[in-house]
Structures are given as structure tokens and as C-alpha cells.
Amino acid sequence: MAQPTSFSVDGKTAIVTGAGSGINYCFAKLLLERNCNVVIADLGLRPEAQKLLDQYTKQPRAVFVKTDVVNWDQLAKMFDVAEKEFGGADIVCPGAGIFEPHWTNFYHPPGTAKSKDDPHGHNGVGHYALFDININHPIRTTQLAMSRWLNPAADSKVGKVSLSNPKRIVHISSIAGQAPSTSTPMYIASKHALSGFIRSLAPLEARLGIRVNGVAPGVIKTPLWTEHPEKMLMIDEANDVWVEPEEVAEAMLRCVEGEGDDVKGGTVMEVLKGRTRTVGWRNDPGPEGPGGLAGNWEKSVDEVFGWLGEEGWGVAK
């Protein structure tokens, strides 16, 4: 079977959800520095992301599309914008995600004081926002990307995907996709699901030229941790080591451009402090080393059992 053509981000266009901050902002910045246009799809922009938008107004160019990733029409719109502004996108990163905040959290069920999840659902169909953001959004975005590439518009500049015209989808899983955690079980479930989804699409690269892979970062110094006091309880400031978001962005670029077994379609690349490795889908030893552990995780478990010990836990108000 013929091998897919090598891939460079130079001169290409990417769609990155969640690029208003954190890892996805760093990835967008790195792409722009490599002469790749970026459609930033997010609810809003932090100052550093706004600066990026102001800086890259020519070639390469950054464009912002306000996007709520749980809204599938808005996901489709970001592809429409990419086609209008750049003739389509060659790289897609459905990177937006949340780390089980109190408002969509297993230990704050729908209908209780802190939850924003509707206990009655929409037309009787229930939804947890965490799963809509962390797993439904990347799955739907992957479908949309594949559909656009397999059925390009007549004026598309990116053309139909093939082994000689490959495309890329890079996801952000987590070391949470390798291990259990009592304090964040829904987040853990979402990342296990995403890693399984990535691995299941491995054959697309050799047959169609669509590489789907992803990274599994450790404990990352981003707002997902630093702006949530309940998560910072897990951190031992004296001994724990942060993985910087720039390290993850570099690994994501390698997932897009690299060659070899560690980045082929279907692979999940663990990113800890100063090192990466491929995560096996069976008999994997799990994350080990700096950046792979929050040293005070027991405190978050104690907090959970404090909640469970409250009278009327889980009873909707």
C-alpha cells in the first residue's frame, strides 16, 4: 500500500478550538510562528490570545470565531469561516476541554445547588456539559473535518484528502485517560473515551491520508488548574513539577508533522516534564516521572467524602 505524503504546517490553515488560552493558545501561537494560518474558535480571548490576533493580520493570519463547542451549528460555522477566509483547513485540533468544575461534576449532581446541568434535560434527554465539551465536541468536530475533506467545495484550496494530499486531526487527551481518580471521575471517563476514540481511527491514515492522533499531557500549568482552587488542593507546591503548555504544543506539532511509530495515526503521546512516550492501549505502566502526579491528590478525595457525608447529598432542590 502506498504511504501518505509527508506533511508540513508551512502555508497551511488550522482550526483550533479552545485557543483563547492554555495549551491550545500555545499551539495556535506555534502554528502561526511556522507560517500556518489559524482559526481560533473559543468563547472568548484572554489578553495573550487577543495580542496574537492583533499581531497576525496578514500572512500568516489569525481569525477569531466565537464558538460554543457544545453547539454543533457553531462547530460547522468555524469550518465555514475557514473556507471563506482561507479556502479550507488542513489541520483540525478540537482542543477545548474542562476539568470537572463544580458546575458539571459527579459529586454535584444535576438539580443541586452548584450544578448547572439540567436534571430534566432538554425534551427529557439529559446532558452533562462535561461530556458535551470533552467528548461529544471532539467527536463531532472530527466528523465535520472528515466530511469537508472527503467532499470539498468546488472552490476549496485544500482539495480532497488523499495519500498525496494528507490532512491532520490532533486531539488533547490526558494522563487521566490512563488512570482512575475518585475526585474527578467524569473527567477521567471523558479522557479514557477520547483516547479510545483516537486509537480506533488509526486505519484512516494509511487508507485515506487522514491522520488522527493526540497528546496525553500530565499536570499542566494552565487555567484549568491555576484558576480552580478546588483543583489546586491536589498540588504539592514544594515538590510537584508542572509541565509547561509550550511543551505540549511542541508535542502536538510533532503529532502533525512528524514521521515514525510514535506519531502515526491512532497513537496517544504522553507529555510529561521534558519527555514524551507512546501510551500503549494494553498493559501500559501508566505515567511516571516529573509532571505525572499531583502530590496532594488525597486532599481532593477527602473533600469528596466530606460532600458525601452531608445530609441529603444528591437530592435535587
TrEMBL record:
Coiled-coil regions listed: none
SUPFAM superfamilies, A to Z: NAD(P)-binding Rossmann-fold domains (SSF51735)
Organism superkingdom: Eukaryota
MF (Gene Ontology): oxidoreductase activity, acting on the CH-OH group of donors, NAD or NADP as acceptor
GO-annotated cellular components: cytoplasm
Short name of one Pfam family: adh_short
Keywords: Oxidoreductase
Coiled coil keyword on record: no
Protein family according to the UniProt entry: Belongs to the short-chain dehydrogenases/reductases (SDR) family.
Annotated protein name in UniProt: 3-hydroxybutyrate dehydrogenase type 2
Organism: Cryoendolithus antarcticus
